[in-house]
């Protein structure tokens, strides 16, 4: 039902327990990166980033495009999956893979492209890891009738030709990163010609390309404004849960920069629905277990203002695991705070574990999940098993952030093992 | 009620004579409260202009207390010392005693809530015990509950920094932000930090601010047109404030 789509986005900053450390420059800086943002990010996006209102109205045009792109997404009960797990828990999932671009990323790509177009920008630029974000930007740009360029992390570019094709089909120009297009990319390639790339590097390339050409950059995760737009997931889920007369106790999402987890869980946290919120990362990229809470750059080049966040360091080159969307060094500042004050718990799982989770889910519910999303499934399995042992009947809800139909080479590889 | 003008200046900027003349002139032109920047180790939430002014005065003077006490001779208005708590928190009491004895009426640490979220109330108590007024700095990044809580402790007003850094204009909804805070507090509200241009000032006041704090604009004017330029900038802000009664 179209009525499930909320009319406002929700921002958690006014409801946090403590202040959010503001973005800032490093100590030795002689220019302001916050000022530089003005020539990188569309004005209205920046305004939303820095104007901490609890509720922000979703523009009518964006509402229309949300519906065009597949919102509201289904909230489904995974009954067959529950049975396979032999758990007394009820398990629901919000299926963001049902959007046309295949993941939650479209929720912020549309408003950002819309605000870019509003100020007369002709091309938007971004980076992509797994390819989900790049796909969303490619589609959003075409819907707004503007052009797009995507720097795609080289390993993903090579591993996922299907993603590249989809972006091209939607109308984007796609380059493997590090690339020869930018100074930063050339430097990285000279250092290491077989550099597998990282989100941090691709981000730096995209920003440099924007600054040099007067384009605008679309942000895929980490920044509060992205989390704001993604709140459409959780707000919509609340409407759907209210409709069926259910309230979840445990909310789960996978975490790269934190946007789908935050988008799903923050509206529940803010309205005091639920009692456990679980952010799930990869045990190959130990952000939660090894990351430190400090000011760090979101991009490897250090062109964006520093954010205080849980981070593995901007120069961290993550191992080339398949869940490209989780290969990022930082964690959104509000989510970092919530993890530190223990409002949000975390878990980390390995590729082998999430493969088993994905397989079970595919066989019982018919959906092939993105490997990123399979981390959330694995956490749901853990909680469901715990419930069985403790003889409790919690209502578990996880966000299935994307489908895995373009990740079949990953599943092939795991199958072969 | 007359709207309040809070004038910021970095202690001793751009040189002692011009600085003191600025204090005197800005007082006569209708400044209600002075906010004097005491150079910190790292002005982490300030923009490039104020940061530059700090490095300039740091290389020119050793004794900022003396400058503070000289400022006292040129104005009877309230003097709030602005500096960062980080770096002095271990000698805080000495610092407070010192600035009090040289004529300060209050103190403002922009990093108090953000960087000391667990211990800020102890520091506020310490400030009050030294008979100084604690001016609490809040921003759009401070949660509502905390804004209400600290507003009750903030004297002589609550200071609301509207942008992430001084002197840098980013698009923000000034009116929206100010209204949000007004609804949370029962105190005088001064809006500053990155407030730029007449429109921003008018929008803050229309939304209910009791006054504004201006600093970077004076420093910019000093750089461009010297003391006269800086004082003209004070006059201009005062005139805007006087449109609102
Ligand atoms: C399907 C999917 N899930 C999750 C993520 C992780 O990003 P975030 O933590 O911002 O949701 C990505 C990122 O590319 C993704 O494609």
In short:
The complex is a heterodimer of chains A (417) and B (245). Chain A has 417 residues and is an alpha/beta fold.
What's the CATH topology label of the largest domain in chain A? Rossmann fold
- What is the CATH architecture annotation of chain B? Alpha-Beta Barrel
**Poorly predicted segments of chain B:** none
CATH superfamily of chain B: Aldolase class I
Proportion in helices of chain B? 40-55%
Model description:
The complex is a heterodimer of chains A (417) and B (245). In chain A, 44% of the residues lie in helices and 17% in strands. With 417 residues, chain A is of the alpha/beta class. Chain A folds into two domains: 2-60 and 105-217, Rossmann fold, CATH 3.40.50.1100; 71-103 and 230-416, Rossmann fold (3-Layer(aba) Sandwich), CATH 3.40.50. In chain A, helix 4 packs across helix 15 (351-365), helix 5 (106-118) packs across helix 6 and helix 11 packs across helix 12 (259-270). The termini of chain A are far apart. The model of chain A has no long low-confidence stretch (mean pLDDT 95). In chain B, helix 1 runs parallel beside helix 3 (64-74) and helix 1 (16-28) runs parallel beside helix 10. Chain B is globular and about 45 Å long. Chain B contains ten helices and nine strands. With 245 residues, chain B is α/β, with parallel strands linked by helices. Chain B has helices at residues 16-28, 48-60, 64-74, 92-101, 112-115, 120-129, 144-151, 174-182, 197-206, 216-243, and strands spanning 4-10, 33-37, 78-82, 106-108, 133-135, 137-138, 158-161, 189-192, 211-214. In chain B, strand 8, helix 9 and strand 9 (211-214) form a beta-alpha-beta unit. The interface between A and B is medium-sized, with 32 and 29 residues. Pyridoxal-5'-phosphate binds at residues 103, 129-130, 132-133, 221, 254-261, 325-326, 370, 372-373, 401-402 of chain A.
């Amino acid at each position: 039902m179209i009525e499930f789509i909320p009319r406002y986005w929700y921002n958690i900053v006014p409801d946090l327990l403590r202040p959010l450390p503001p973005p800032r420059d490093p100590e030795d800086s002689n220019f302001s990166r916050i000022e530089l943002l003005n020539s990188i990010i569309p004005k209205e996006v920046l305004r939303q980033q820095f104007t901490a209102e609890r509720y922000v109205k979703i523009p009518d045009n964006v509402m229309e495009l949300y519906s065009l792109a597949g919102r509201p997404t289904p909230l489904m009960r995974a009954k067959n999956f529950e049975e396979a797990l032999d758990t007394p828990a009820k398990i629901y999932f919000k299926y963001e893979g049902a959007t046309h671009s295949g993941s939650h990323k479209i929720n912020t790509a549309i408003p950002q492209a819309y605000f870019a177009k509003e100020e007369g920008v002709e091309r938007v630029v971004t980076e992509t890891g797994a390819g989900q974000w790049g796909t969303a930007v490619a589609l959003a740009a075409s819907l707004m009738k503007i052009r797009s360029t995507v720097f795609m992390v080289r390993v993903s570019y090579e591993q996922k030709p299907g993603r590249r094709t989809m972006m091209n089909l939607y109308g984007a120009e796609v380059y493997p990163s590090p690339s020869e297009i930018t100074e930063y990319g050339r430097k990285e390639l000279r250092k290491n010609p077989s550099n597998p790339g990282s989100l941090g590097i691709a981000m730096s390339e995209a920003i440099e390309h924007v600054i040099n050409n007067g384009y605008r950059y679309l942000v895929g995760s980490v920044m509060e404004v992205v989390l704001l737009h993604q709140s459409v997931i959780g707000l919509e889920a609340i409407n759907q849960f209210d409709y069926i007369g259910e309230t979840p106790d445990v909310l789960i999402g996978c975490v790269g920069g934190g946007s789908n987890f935050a988008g799903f869980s923050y509206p529940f946290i803010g309205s005091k629905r639920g009692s456990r919120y679980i952010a799930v990362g990869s045990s190959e990229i130990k952000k939660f277990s090894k990351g430190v809470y400090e000011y760090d750059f979101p991009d490897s080049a250090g062109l964006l203002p520093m954010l205080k966040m849980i981070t593995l360091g901007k120069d961290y080159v993550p191992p080339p695991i398949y869940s490209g969307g989780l290969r990022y060094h930082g964690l959104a500042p509000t989510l970092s705070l919530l993890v530190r004050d223990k409002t949000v718990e975390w878990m980390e799982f390995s590729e082998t574990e999430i493969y088993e989770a994905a397989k079970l889910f595919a066989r019982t519910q018919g959906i092939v999940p993105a490997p990123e999303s399979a981390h959330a499934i694995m956490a749901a399995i853990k909680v469901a098993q715990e419930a069985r042992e403790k003889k409790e009947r919690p209502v578990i809800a996880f966000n299935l952030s994307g489908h895995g139909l373009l990740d079949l080479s990953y599943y092939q590889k795991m199958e072969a093992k | 009620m007359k709207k309040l003008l809070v004038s910021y200046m970095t202690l001793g900027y751009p040189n002692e004579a011009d600085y003191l003349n600025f204090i005197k002139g800005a007082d006569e032109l209708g400044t209600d409260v002075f906010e004097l920047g005491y150079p910190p180790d790292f002005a982490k939430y300030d923009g490039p202009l104020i940061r530059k002014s700090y490095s300039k005065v740091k290389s020119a003077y050793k004794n900022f207390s003396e400058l503070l006490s000289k400022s006292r001779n040129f104005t009877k208005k309230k003097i709030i010392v602005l500096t960062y708590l980080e770096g002095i928190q271990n000698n805080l009491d000495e610092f407070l005693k010192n600035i009090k004895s040289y004529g300060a009426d209050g103190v403002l640490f922009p990093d108090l809530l953000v960087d000391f979220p667990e211990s800020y109330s102890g520091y506020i108590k310490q400030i009050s015990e030294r008979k100084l007024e604690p001016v609490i700095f809040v921003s759009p990044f401070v949660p509502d509950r905390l804004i209400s809580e600290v507003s009750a402790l903030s004297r002589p007003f609550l200071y609301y920094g509207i942008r992430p850094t001084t002197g840098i204009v980013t698009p923000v909804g000034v009116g929206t932000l100010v209204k949000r805070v007004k609804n949370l507090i029962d105190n005088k509200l001064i809006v500053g930090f990155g407030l730029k241009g007449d429109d921003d000032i008018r929008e803050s006041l229309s939304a209910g601010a009791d006054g504004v704090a201006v600093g970077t604009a004076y420093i910019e004017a000093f750089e461009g047109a010297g003391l006269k330029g800086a004082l003209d900038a004070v006059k201009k802000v005062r005139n805007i404030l006087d449109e609102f009664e």
